[in-house]
Structure formats: structure tokens, C-alpha cells
Design goal:
Layout lengths: L7 E6 L3 H14 L2 E6 L2 H10 L4 E7 L9 H8 L4 E5 L4 H10 L3 E4 L3 H17 L3 E5 L3 H13 L3 E5 L2 H10 L3 E7 L7 H8 L9 E6 L4 H10 L3 E4 L4 H26 L7 E2 H17 L4 E8 L2 H8 L1 H19 L3 E6 L2 E7 L3 H17 L2 E3 L2 E3 L3 E6 L6 H17 L4 E4 L5 E3 L2
Parallel strand pairs: 1-2, 1-3, 3-4, 4-5, 6-7, 6-8, 8-9, 9-10, 11-13, 17-18
Antiparallel strand pairs: 12-14, 12-17, 13-14, 15-16, 18-19
Helix pairs in contact: 1-5, 2-3, 7-8, 12-13, 13-14
Pfam families: GGDEF, Response_reg
EC number: 2.7.7.65
Keywords: Phosphoprotein
């Protein structure tokens, strides 16, 4: 059977049949991973050689029949696999030893929750490469320690020695999601840095964790009052650092998911009308200032009411979803929104109306040649479009021009796209 390329392949090395059974069950529930299992060091060595380029990470028991002293961890780390240790015995010295070697986490087997935690850590690792973290710390050894720990978690890490450098990094990398900052630093301390950042970035856009060796309880409270999301007292355990960082990253992810859901059309997944105007207007004004071309299109499905009347709204919804998918496939590099009903908006930066009309043609040809498969059977969909490149004061006004051209296309027989030069008319005929 061919491997599922959508799932990350992980190596699990565990000699207990009971634990293996639990892990197999949980992996099926998670659905994110494809697991290869080994019971011994020798089996793991063979799998590492055979699957060298395919493995994403490893979860390993610390004690195996042919590797009683953690040799399995040495193996997986040698193959540069992010490794989570699962062990039946909690030993602080062992934990410190293996964390020093570079394992991602050291988890004691304490029932189902421990195994779920290990898999959640793997899931977190798979997402972390998308997130940027800034470490602001004037002590080079401490900064190096934090950076190394977070790099093991696959985060993208940026560094600064003080507040002024941090502001420069944030200006160059505006999509940094989390910042860890020390309190006492030259040029600009942690409090000044946080105060300045909170004027433009709220805690749901940039999470901030304050750091200090000062154990005064008032200091942590002051950090929070100045705008930090969290506080961490140095020196700290790796687990505490990971927990605080991961919790704050997950907060950012939840807020982004909520904002994204609010900006999306519930049916098609495209941006909704409100988001289109909120997002497109600023971009539109910027393009105008730079004297770039901007073309907008209003697309409307032909005779859509007949589909709803004949087959019902559930079938109409299937047609709209398929149309949204087709728009994304053919024109996904542009800003697309469902304006309402069977109408869609496009903003196409950098091109004129004639080029936009040519780009619409493959979409028209595909819909004509490949009926949409619905629960009521195949349905052939056609559309009309108005396309305008005439720059106006606001994008809403340019869309109004495109809407007038759409009306002309409808009046002219439908199944055609009309540009604002009048002479360009392209149909599927």
C-alpha cells in the first residue's frame, strides 16, 4: 500500500505490547500521523536506514531489551529526528541528561494522558515551523540556551540583545508571533520595549513573555501591567519554557482562527463581503499610489435561481461550493470573495482588464466541459462577468463599474465576460 503523503511519518520504539496497543489506537484517533513501530534497537536501526528521508520524528522508550541505557535516543538523535522520550521511571538526572542531549521532551508513562501528551507534542512540532519567535536577551549564554531550546521545537527564531534591536527585528519581521524579553538590558529595558510595542500591537497579535532573575513578585505583576502576556523566572526548566511558549502560541492560533472564521463565507470558505472591502480597500489605495494596474471583476452564475427552484437549495449550495473551488483553482493568486448569493468579487492587482478577461476564459471552458457533480446529478454551470480596470477613488466605485458591465453581459445573452473597453467579449460558445 502506498504511504499517505498527507500524514507525517513517525517512528515509535516501544517494547511493551500494552503501550504499543494504546499508541496505535491514539494515532488512529489523532489522524495526523503514519506510525512505524519497532520493539528493539536493532529494528529501529533498520527502519532509520530504510526510511531516512521520510521520518518526521520519534517517540522512544528509554529502556529496551537490547538497549537498556537509552542507546535508542542516541540513535534517533544521530539521525536528526526530533525525539520524545517515554519512560516508566522519572529520574531528574536522566531527564537533565537527555534534555542536554537535545530531546524535545521527557515524559513519564502515567497512563493514557501521557501518551496523548506525546502525540500532541508531535502535532505541535508539525505546526511550529510556521511561527516566528523573537528572543530579546543581553546575556549571550542565556540567549543561546533559550534559542537552542526553542529551535528543538522547530520554531523560527530571531535574536536581539536589547529593546532597540528588538524593534528593528520586529519591523523587518512583522509576522513574529511571540517575543521573550529580559527585564534589565542596555539602551532600552524590557518594560520600555513592551510599552512601545503595545501602542501598535495588542496581546492577541503579539504575545510577550517577560524574563528576569529577580524573584520579586512585584516584578512579574509589573510585567503583566505593562502589557506582557506571561512571566518566566530565570533560571527555568525546559518543560516550563516549552509549556509557556506553546500555550501562548496556541492562544495566537486560536485568535487567528477566530478572526479567519469571521472573515470567511460559511458555505464556500471564500472571504466574505465585509472582509473583502475591509482588506481590499487599503491594498487598493496602496496600488494606486504606486501607479499599479488594478482590475476588478464581478461574476454572477447564470440562471442560478432555476437550479434552486428545480433541485432545491442543498443542490444550489453544492454548485456554489464547486464554483468557489474552481475560482480558487484558476484565480487563487488574487483576492476572491463571495459577495452574496451567486455573486463573486475579484480584485486582480497588476493586470489590465484584457488580461483579466483572458484569465477568466479557462475557468469558463472548464465549467462548460466538466459539469458539476451534485447529489441531483451533473449540472452544467455558466457565468457572466463584468471586468473593469478604470481606477476610481474607492474600490467600491470600481466594482460598481464592473457591475454595470455585468448587467450588459446579462442583457446581451449571458455566458460572457465584458470589459470596460466594450469591444472585448469572450463567451464559452
Amino acid at each position: 500500500m502506498a504511504p499517505n503523503m498527507d500524514k507525517k511519518r513517525i517512528l515509535i520504539v516501544e517494547d511493551s505490547a500494552t503501550v504499543t496497543k494504546v499508541l496505535r489506537h491514539l494515532i488512529l484517533q489523532f489522524g495526523h500521523f503514519e506510525a512505524l513501530f519497532a520493539q528493539t534497537l536493532a529494528q529501529a536501526q533498520q527502519l532509520c536506514l530504510q526510511q531516512a528521508d521520510a521520518l518526521f520524528a520519534a517517540v522512544v522508550d528509554l529502556t529496551l531489551p537490547d538497549a537498556p541505557n537509552g542507546e535508542i535516543v542516541e540513535l534517533t538523535l544521530a539521525h536528526q529526528l526530533p525525539t520524545i522520550v517515554l519512560t516508566g521511571n522519572f529520574d531528574p538526572k536522566q531527564r537533565a541528561h537527555w534534555q542536554g542531549k537535545g530531546v524535545v521532551d521527557y515524559i513519564t508513562k502515567e497512563g493514557r494522558y501521557s501518551y496523548e501528551l506525546a502525540l500532541k507534542q508531535l502535532q505541535r512540532l508539525g505546526n511550529n515551523h510556521e511561527h516566528k519567535i523573537l528572543v530579546v536577551e543581553d546575556s549571550r549564554p542565556v540567549r543561546k540556551l533559550i534559542v537552542a531550546a526553542l529551535e528543538r521545537q522547530h520554531y523560527q527564531i530571531f535574536q536581539a540583545e536589547h529593546g532597540e534591536q528588538a524593534l528593528q527585528q520586529l519591523a523587518q519581521q512583522p509576522d513574529i508571533k511571540l517575543m521573550l524579553t529580559d527585564y534589565q538590558m542596555p539602551h532600552m529595558d524590557g518594560f520600555e520595549l513592551i510599552q512601545q510595542l503595545r501602542r501598535t500591537r495588542d496581546p492577541t497579535q503579539l504575545c510577550i513573555i517577560g524574563l528576569s532573575t529577580n524573584s520579586d513578585a512585584a516584578l512579574s505583576a509589573k510585567f503583566i501591567k505593562y502589557g506582557a502576556n506571561d512571566f518566566l523566572l530565570k533560571p527555568f526548566l525546559h518543560e516550563e519554557l516549552y509549556c509557556r511558549v506553546n500555550q501562548n502560541i496556541e492562544l495566537i492560533e486560536r485568535m487567528e482562527a477566530m478572526r479567519d472564521a469571521a472573515s470567511r463565507d460559511y458555505l464556500t470558505g471564500l472571504y466574505n463581503r465585509r472582509h473583502f472591502f475591509a482588506h481590499a480597500e487599503a491594498h487598493y489605495q496602496s496600488l494606486k499610489q504606486q501607479r499599479h494596474k488594478v482590475t476588478v471583476a464581478v461574476i454572477d452564475l447564470d440562471h442560478f435561481k432555476q437550479i434552486n427552484d428545480r433541485h432545491g437549495h442543498l443542490i444550489g449550495d453544492q454548485v456554489l461550493k464547486a464554483m468557489a473551488d474552481a475560482l480558487t483553482t484558476h484565480l487563487g493568486r488574487f483576492l476572491i470573495a463571495r459577495a452574496g448569493g451567486e455573486e463573486f468579487f475579484l480584485m486582480m492587482a497588476g493586470i489590465g482588464s484584457e488580461q483579466a478577461l483572458r484569465l477568466l476564459q479557462p475557468l469558463r471552458q472548464r465549467l462548460a466541459a466538466e459539469p458539476i457533480m451534485t447529489d441531483a446529478g451533473p449540472i452544467t454551470v455558466r457565468f457572466s462577468a463584468g471586468v473593469s480596470e478604470r481606477i476610481t477613488d474607492k474600490i467600491e466605485q470600481q466594482l460598481h463599474q464592473a457591475d454595470i458591465l455585468l448587467y450588459q453581459a446579462k442583457q446581451g445573452g449571458r455566458d460572457q465576460s465584458i470589459g470596460d473597453h466594450g469591444a472585448v467579449t469572450i463567451s464559452s460558445g
